[in-house]
Each structure stands twice: as C-alpha cells, then as structure tokens.
Design goal:
The protein is α/β, with parallel strands linked by helices. It has 11 helices and 12 strands. α5 packs across α7.
Length: 319
Amino acid sequence: MEKIVILDGHAVNPGDLSWDPIRQLGLLTVYDRTAPDVFYERAKDAGILITNKVPFTRERIDLLPRLRYIGVLATGYNIIDTDYARQKGITVTNIPAYSTDGVAQMVFAHLLAIINRVEHYTQQNRELRWTRNTDFCYWDTPITELAGKTIGIIGLGHIGMKVAHIAQAFGMQVNAYTSKEAALLPDGIQKVPLEKLLADSHIVTLHCPLTDDTHELINRHTLAQMHPQAILINTGRGPLVNEADVAEALATGQLAAYGTDVLGQEPPSADNPLLRQPRAFITPHIAWAASETRQRLINITADNLRAFLEHHPQNVVNS
C-alpha cells in the first residue's frame, strides 16, 4: 500500500476527529508537528505527503525522490514551490471553499461582538455590576443596529458572497469591490470602485486573496478614505492590512474598531501594536476551527487523494 505521511495534523485534528477517510487509502502516519530537523527522516520514504503549514521548498523537494503527491490541508498553498513541483512531476492539491460557512459566521461574530459587546456586559455582570444598578437596565458602550447600514465587501468569492447574503438578511446595504461583472451580481449587491466602497461603507470586510496588489491594501492612505468611525473586519489574510497603520487609526479614533481572525505573523510577536489596542478584537485564526469545517477538510483531502490514486486528480494547483 502507498505510504502516506501527514506532517502537521494537530491544528486540523487535535484528537476530536478521525483520520479514517485518509487511512483507508494507504499506510498512514500522522505527526502533530514536524520541526525542520526531523523533516527529512519523516518524509523520505513517503510517496504522498500531506501538509498544513510545513513548507516545501525546491531544496526539500530535491531531497525526496519518491515524492509524487503533496496534499495541502488548506486553501492557500504559498508554502509550496508549485512550479518546481510540477517540473519534478509532483502533483499538488489544495482544499477550496471548505470553510465558507465558518468564515462567514466569524465575520458576523466579530461584527456583533463589536456593536453589542456581549462579552463586555457578561464580564461586568459576573462582577455584579447590574445588581448595583438603580434602573432595570444600563449600557456604557454605543449600541447600534445593523439594519440600514452599508457593508463594503472587498472580494466576492465564495466567502464574500456568503457574507453578502447574510448582510442582506440583516437588512444591510451591500457594496462590493470585485472583478465580477456588475450585470452578473445578485440583486441587492452593488459593484463599486474601491474609493467609493471605502467612503460609503459603515463596515468594510476583507475577502480578497493575498497578492502583490492586495498586500497591505488597507494602509494609512486607504484608512483616510474610509467612512468616519467605520468598522474593519479581516478574516482573510493578516498582510492585507498594515497593522501599525490600523493600530494608529484605532488610537486616534479614525477607525471605530478592528475585528480580525488573522495577523501578519502567527503566532504574533508580543510587540504587535494591535495587541495593545482595546478596540482591536482579535481571535486566534479560528474561523475554520468548527468541527464540521475541519471534518469537511479531512473528507476533501481524502477525496483529492483518492482521485489522484485513481488517475483523475482534482483541485490541482500546479497543472
């Protein structure tokens, strides 16, 4: 049977799920994490390697003459030298669109956390704040409705489109900065230039891929174009924003809040300026972490591998 090695499976499956869909396809070995000094020893005999964040450079690929397939346990595959893998006859696959529901849900988890501050009031009332109150209710943060607000979505792929539909259910107006033709967009989604989206949107949410053109798309210049006291949400990639510029905009009140599930460096360094901002709402890259989402990831990984073994590969990123 084919030898299959998962190099860093812990983040996907810390023990609550089953690797059986992949185990059925070969002799499977799963490592929680793989440090550079043990990479070769673990990978050298496998024809099939599966990775989440362990990189495959040209030099590493050259060490592995038996390697014929790399499965990426994620949508992004920038950790792989895909061109060189293709030259060596190695198929590389990824997992597209597995986390659409989970990431869209996280967008609104952040947004509602910012505008309703449930955690803030829950903590206050654990400390008996409400019991000391004169009136039947109190609030000490601004509370607003989403209905009637304008949300600007940058990038209208699977996740961006899901966010748009949820926003419409809340009664929001939806603007989108997208390469899609305006005539092909669903009713209620207006295609606009980036400058208009930034100026008109009460909430801006990032769903574009990370490319040379979108690297630090949100920076001092684009923040200055945004609607006063806008909320910025990032569940895409950390480097879509200049974090120092966002921290400064929060400190000056130019930006009302920043909700993010991703940072430019993960785990972040202790001196990341966003960690010191009380209006930065930061979750540790968990939009994909629902058990249903991770099980879907494992199932699609198995489907990709099965298709490769049956000589009709799917989700190939280096064809």
